[in-house]
Design brief:
heterodimer, A: 532 residues, alpha+beta, DNA ligase i, domain 1, D-amino Acid Aminotransferase, Chain A, domain 1, OB fold (Dihydrolipoamide Acetyltransferase, E2P), 3 domains, 7-stranded mixed beta sheet, 7-stranded antiparallel beta sheet, 24% strand, B: 336 residues, alpha/beta, Rossmann fold, 2 domains, 19 strands, globular
Amino acid sequence: MKDFAALFTALDQTTKTSVKTAALTEYLAAAREEDRVWTIALLSGRRPRRAITTTKLREWAAERAGIPLWLFEACYPVVGDLSETIALVLPEPETRIERSLSDWIATLRALDKADEAERKETILAAWNGLPPTERFVFNKLITGGWRMGVSQKLMTRALAKATGIDDAELTHRLMGDWTPDSVSWDSLIEAPDPTADLSRPYPFYLAYQLEQEPHELGPVNDWLAERKWDGIRGQLILREGERYLWSRGEDLMTDRFPEFAQLVDFLPSGTVIDGEVLAYDHAADAPLSFNKLQARIGRKTVPKKLLTEAPVILMAYDLLEWHGADLRQAPLAERRATLESAIEALPPELPIRISPRVEAKDWDGLAQARAISRDIGAEGLMLKRLNAPYLAGRKKGDWWKWKVDPLTIDAVMIYAQAGSGRRATLYTDFTFAVWNGNDLVPFTKAYSGLTDAEFRQITAWVRKNTTDRFGPVRAVTPHHVFEIAFEGIQPSPRHKSGVALRFPRIARWRKDKPLQEANTLDDLNQMLEIYG
Amino acid sequence: MVLEFTPSGIYCPAADAYIDPWRPVPRALITHGHSDHARPGMGAYMATKAAAPVIHHRLGGDIRMETTDYGVTHRIGDADISFHPAGHVPGSAQIRVEVDGEVWVASGDYKVIDDGLSEPFEPVKCHTFITESTFGLPIYDWPDQDVLARDLNDWWRGCVAEGKRAVLGVYALGKAQRILRLLDPSIGPILTHGAVEATNSVLRAQGLALPDTVQVVDGIDAKSHPDAIVLAPPSALGTPWMKRFGAVSTGFASGWMRLRGVRRRRAADRGFVVSDHADWKGLNWAIEQTGAERVFVTHGYTAQFSQWLREQGYDAGIVQTEFGGEDLDEAEENAA
């Protein structure tokens, strides 16, 4: 594991993508095959099943360090990472164990069948035989939640360099439902069998937010405009009588949305559709609020009642595979035409719709159409170049999100909490309130949107202006006003304010704004009435 | 009480004097020259001979200053007061106060390892000990200084080999000079930011041996000193001042670099774990050495550390102070 730990250190010591890619390329070229496969698995979010509870790890680490458990627990929020906390409190190792990454993983997996005494013995022996970084990496293997500052994109690029295989092709090969047990280096990377995994999705094409003026994109006729629907992006795969629904985050969501089972009988084998899963009001032929869909997302199995209350459809955007042929290189105009005729031929009661084209004779017309997005439950427009292929990953140029501006409200910071991980020593999680008469009513939390320098500044202020402490949370003197941006607002009986926001974040620090001029609960309720 | 905790600072009624006060008072006993301990506006100052020049440099030459050697007892009012090495920075002291046979020690900031620069920490027997707890959690464990020296010089050599300038963020007083003495001058010249060099000059003038340094002034750039390492206050990292050095590798030297989250947030290429404060083991060792029964815990992880001390059988309490200690924000604000 020395090499893997060295890779980890190399990645950790730089913020530069080029250096990270080089370190990873070098590692992949030199490592043993099974270590390579495991490294790819770990970096793409696949980890061995957790054989030991974190409760046990905490107890054993505190015991080995000779400190009471409460003191270990007090260290954890400061470090912000359990694996690191353990690595830091343990005494120096007394021996040196050298084993490969995959050997260690095998050791850990064997613990599945071991009793607790044996588990403890194995873990303590490992802690006592690994230098600090390897110890940290070892803990990460147990606890999961692996983040090495390497995106899947970067990992794929390094892999492309190490193997000479095309980037987009590799992205595709790495998708789907594989584990290091089900594949070898050869079957995963070098010579994959395309029929081996019927469920394997294509990499999603992701858009950037439009930065320039839309007319700079050229003639409006070169573009397909459609609504940016506010649901869950999904890829529906119909192959050989089976169906699979993948989320953008590569979660298999098939069982959560049984509605799509019937599509298998109506669309040909070898159909892959990119679309948006939406809760849908069939009577009104319009999407329901994201709120309704949310009730479905958390459920692995769906009770009948929920199926009738919040039925879903797939709002189809694009056709990636048709009759088993990969269409991604065909221009959008062609893919879209095939998709439209395929869906038009379906019985209307099926849970699938074509995402309508938003037509306008010029950019001003599209801007007007965009302006009403929120009223029809959309987040804005998507602009897609009609002659473009379907690319892999987030790419600039052919696809743009043209979102409506977020809703905003000026609010007062009243509680602060330290962040975790990278921001463990900073106050980054804030609770905000609006005025209700002379009272401040908390209504949302937000923890992003400021620069590190601003977070440092507010952290220093929080330390000096704490009025009360509740565990890790500090109440602070109401003083600072922040503009909070958000994408939607819903009624929520669980919150004191009666509302819940979607994607709240700090838009800016309103140093210019006196405390009294922050918004009120009435203002929020008005927004709820209009957009809720 | 021999010492009391007041809004102006730690007060000794018997001597009518304050230790490291943060509001103007007639008489101040100063442990060391860091700006959260030596503040302007006091009627009179008392500090060790070795600490005084920096305090003068920072607060102005016209302050009223009485100096003392370590270990010399001064009768002030009804109190016997003496200064003892704290090992924090050159000249830093713990202040021992004895009234009617009861002894208290206010330790200011301290570390227990010998850094080769500061007068080494000297345990002082007392009944009541006032300790800091900047790094008062068991996650803080400093590597040996020779390991640090090796890592620093390896990094510097690596930078030279890659054609980059190594730029290290260090506090101007104490940390900078400590690092200076660990660097291997055979690798190349050592360049310093003005803030660091100003403190260097003060310390050199009082007889401290430091390696040769070259202050960065206009006209000094990457080309003029290709093998150089640059020492600068943390606040200078990432500013336009850095542009002159072309391709750089940035490092940051602080106890906080022990934490991966902080290392990553600083966005420095390298973090070196080194502090002028005691680590967990150091704090515990120092307290044990004093033989104190009662301990007051000031800045840092006060709640956690005092609870730990109570469980170890001490009568331990927390004192709110306005000392910043080795604070990331403080570093940012003070370093300019």
